[in-house]
Specification:
Blueprint (H helix, E strand, L loop, with lengths): L9 H12 L6 H10 L4 E5 L2 E3 L7 E2 L2 E4 L2 E5 L9 E5 L4 E4 L1 E6 L10 E2 L9 H14 L5 E5 L15 H7 L4 E5 L6 E3 L1 H9 L9 E2 L3 H11 L4 H18 L1 E6 L17 H8 L6 E6 L9 H9 L9 E8 L4 H4 L6 H12 L3 E6 L2 H15 L10 E4 L5 H9 L4 E4 L2 H4 L8 H5 L6 E4 L10 H10 L16 H9 L24 E4 L19 E6 L2 E5 L7
Parallel strand pairs: 1-6, 2-7, 8-14, 9-10, 10-11, 14-15, 15-16, 16-17, 17-18, 18-19, 19-20
Antiparallel strand pairs: 1-4, 2-3, 4-5, 7-21, 11-12, 12-13, 21-22, 22-23
Helix pairs in contact: 7-8, 16-17
Length: 552
C-alpha cells in the first residue's frame, strides 16, 4: 500500500468582499471567550482505538486537539483550563471520511425536505419507518422528497412504497420519491394532486413514468426554491453527512441539466452565506466544471482568468476544474477533439488542479494520450491532475497514470447503477503504487451520498440489486476506510500536510464510530451500511453528537 474574458459573477464579488473583511465572523459567544481560551475549547480524546490512517497501520489511545489542528498523539493528560477531556470508552475512531468525488452542493436544489435516510433502507417497512420519522421533523403540509440516491431494486420487495403506504406513513404531508432523480417516481395522494395541479401527468396510483414527466415534476417543484430553502436544505444534508462521519466533500458541481442544476453565476451564493455565518460544518472543496462546447471555451476561460484556485477559507475552498474540462459531448470523444485538447492545455498553462470524470477504457486511454503529451511541458502531477471514477480502467491504464505521477480517484457509481460488471478495480488501484488513492460516491443523484454504502460495496462487491460483482477487486474493511479517510486524500487538493488522516498539524477532523467496523463479529457485512458516527469533530469543533459519550 502506498503511504499513502467574462465579468466576475456576483457570488465571487461577495467572496472577495468577505475575504477583505475577515471571512468567517465568530459568533458572539466565541468572541467573549477569545481572550482566554480561543474561539473553541481544546479537546483531549482519551481511551479510544484511534486509527490514524497515515499509511503505517498505527493506532493510538488518545489525541490532543488544539484549535483546529491535532496537537499530539498519545500525549500525557494536560491540566489545562481550556481543554475538555472526552472519554471515548473504547470506541473505534477514524479520521473524518472524505468523499473524493460527489455532487453535494446540488442537493440543496432539491425541492421540499430532502430525506437522505432512505438511501440505506432495504425493505419497504424500513423505508416507511424512515419517512414516518422524517414526517415528525417536517412542518405539516410541507413536501417530503427523496430525489436521487434511491432505487426500487434496493428494497427486498423490488418496488416503491405504494400510494396507500405513503399516505399512512405521512398523512399530513405530500411525499414524492424519484429513482436516481431522473427515473420513475412515486407520490402519495397529496403530492399526486399537487403535481397534477402543476401540469404533471401522475397516474391514479401515484406513479410517474420515466422520462419527460419525471423531469417536469422536478422542474415545477423546484421552480419556487429560494436561497432560504437552499440554506435549510443544505443544513439538513450537512447534518446527515456529519452523522455518518463524513467531514469533507470534493464537490464536482451540478451542471448537467435536470435535478440539482447549479447556475455557475450565482448558484453558490447561499452556501457562501452559510460559511460567513459559520453555519455550514462540512469541509467543502469546490471544482468548477467546463461547460462551453465550442472552440472558444468561453465559460472555462472565465473560470481560469477570473477566479482563483485554492481561494477561500478552510471550510469552503475553490480547488480546481472538475467533472470535465469541456461540455459532456466533447469530453468522451476518442481520440479527444481539438476543443477538449485546447481546454486541457489552458488548464495546464494556468496551473490549475483538474479532476476528470472517465469510465470506459477508451475514454481513459484518450485522456491519458493527451495528458502524456502535456506532461512533457507541464508538471500536471504537481498540479494534482486526477482521472476519476475509473470503473473500466485496466491494469495497463492504471500503470500509465502511475508513471505520470497521478493520483487515482476510484468512485463507487456502479454500486447504484445495478450493472453486472461492477467496478472500479479497487484492489488493483490500491496496490498500484500511485502517489495517492481516494474513494468516493459520485452521489447523490445517480448514487447514494452515504459513504458506508460505498464502503460496503468496496468490501463485498455486492451492488444495490444484491448481486455479487467485481468479486476479484474487493478490499478489506481497513483498506476501504483508508481509501475514504487517509492522508492520501489531501494530495488531491494540494493539502498534503493538512487534510485526511490523524496526525500532528493536520486538520482535527475525526469520527467516533457507533461500532467496531473492523470486527466482522461485531459488524456483519450487511451492517456496514448502517454504520454511523456517535461524535463527529471538524476543525476541533464538535459538530455532531449522538449523546452516546459524555461531552462538554
Amino acid at each position: 500500500m502506498t503511504n499513502r474574458a467574462i465579468s466576475v459573477p456576483a457570488w465571487l464579488t461577495a467572496v472577495t468582499a468577505t475575504a477583505l473583511s475577515g471571512f468567517c465572523a465568530l459568533p458572539a459567544t466565541a468572541q467573549t471567550n477569545l481572550s482566554s481560551c480561543g474561539p473553541i475549547r481544546d479537546l483531549f480524546l482519551v481511551n479510544g482505538e484511534i486509527h490514524l490512517m497515515d499509511g503505517s497501520g498505527a493506532t493510538a489511545a488518545s489525541v490532543l486537539i488544539k484549535g483546529d489542528k491535532v496537537a499530539a498523539i498519545d500525549a500525557e493528560l494536560e491540566n489545562d483550563a481550556c481543554t475538555d477531556t472526552i472519554d471515548l470508552e473504547g470506541h473505534v475512531v477514524i479520521p473524518g471520511l472524505i468523499d473524493n468525488h460527489v455532487h453535494y452542493i446540488r442537493i440543496a436544489n432539491r425541492p421540499g425536505y430532502d430525506t437522505r435516510t432512505l438511501e440505506t433502507t432495504y425493505t419497504i417497512d424500513a423505508a416507511l419507518d424512515a419517512l414516518r420519522q422524517r414526517a415528525e421533523q417536517v412542518p405539516a403540509g410541507e413536501l417530503i422528497t427523496t430525489i436521487g440516491g434511491i432505487r426500487r431494486a434496493q428494497w427486498a420487495e423490488k418496488r416503491f412504497p405504494t400510494i396507500a403506504e405513503l399516505d399512512a406513513a405521512a398523512p399530513r404531508h405530500a411525499v414524492y420519491l424519484s429513482e436516481r432523480g431522473a427515473g420513475p417516481g412515486q407520490t402519495n395522494t397529496a403530492a399526486r394532486d399537487q403535481l397534477r395541479a402543476l401540469g404533471v401527468t401522475v397516474a391514479d396510483d401515484g406513479t410517474i413514468s420515466n422520462g419527460p414527466e419525471t423531469a417536469k415534476a422536478y422542474d415545477v417543484l423546484a421552480a419556487s426554491l429560494s436561497d432560504a430553502d437552499r440554506e435549510r436544505q443544505m443544513a439538513d444534508v450537512a447534518a446527515y453527512a456529519l452523522s455518518t462521519g463524513m467531514t469533507t466533500v470534493m464537490d464536482m458541481s451540478g451542471t448537467v441539466p435536470g435535478v440539482g442544476f447549479i447556475d455557475q453565476t450565482n448558484g453558490y451564493d447561499f452556501l457562501l452565506d452559510m460559511v460567513r455565518k459559520n453555519s455550514h460544518k462540512v469541509r467543502t472543496r469546490i471544482y468548477f466544471p467546463g461547460l462551453d462546447e465550442d472552440a472558444e471555451l468561453t465559460q472555462l476561460m472565465g473560470y481560469l482568468n477570473n477566479k482563483w484556485p485554492d481561494y477561500g477559507p478552510d471550510m469552503a475552498k475553490i480547488v480546481g476544474i472538475g467533472e470535465w474540462s469541456v461540455g459532456r459531448s466533447l469530453f468522451n470523444e476518442q481520440p479527444l477533439g481539438d476543443a477538449a485538447r485546447l481546454a486541457q492545455r489552458r488548464i495546464a498553462e494556468r496551473g490549475w488542479t483538474y479532476h476528470q470524470h472517465i469510465h470506459s477504457p477508451a475514454e481513459i486511454d484518450a485522456h491519458l494520450d493527451v495528458w502524456e503529451e502535456l506532461a512533457e511541458e507541464f508538471d500536471i502531477a504537481g498540479m494534482r491532475w486526477t482521472p476519476g471514477h475509473l470503473s473500466g480502467i485496466t491494469p495497463e491504464l492504471v500503470q500509465r497514470a502511475v508513471e505520470m505521477g497521478l493520483g487515482l480517484g476510484a468512485h463507487g457509481q456502479p454500486y447504484h447503477s445495478g450493472t453486472p460488471t461492477g467496478g472500479p478495480p479497487w484492489r488493483t488501484i490500491l496496490n498500484s503504487g500511485a502517489v495517492a488513492v481516494g474513494a468516493g460516491s459520485d452521489g447523490a443523484r445517480i448514487n447514494v451520498l452515504n459513504p458506508w454504502a460505498i464502503i460496503y460495496y468496496m468490501v463485498t462487491g455486492i451492488n444495490v440489486n444484491g448481486e455479487l460483482t467485481n468479486a476479484d477487486e474487493t478490499v478489506s474493511r481497513h483498506d476501504a476506510v483508508y481509501m475514504y479517510s487517509s492522508v492520501e486524500q489531501g494530495w488531491f487538493t494540494r493539502e498534503d500536510d493538512l487534510l485526511g488522516g490523524i496526525g500532528v498539524g493536520r486538520f482535527a477532523d475525526i469520527a467516533v464510530l457507533s461500532a467496531d467496523v473492523f470486527d466482522p463479529d461485531e459488524v456483519s457485512d450487511a451492517d456496514i451500511r448502517h454504520m454511523t458516527s456517535v461524535l463527529t469533530i471538524v476543525g476541533g469543533e464538535i459538530v455532531h453528537d449522538a449523546g452516546v459519550l459524555a461531552t462538554p
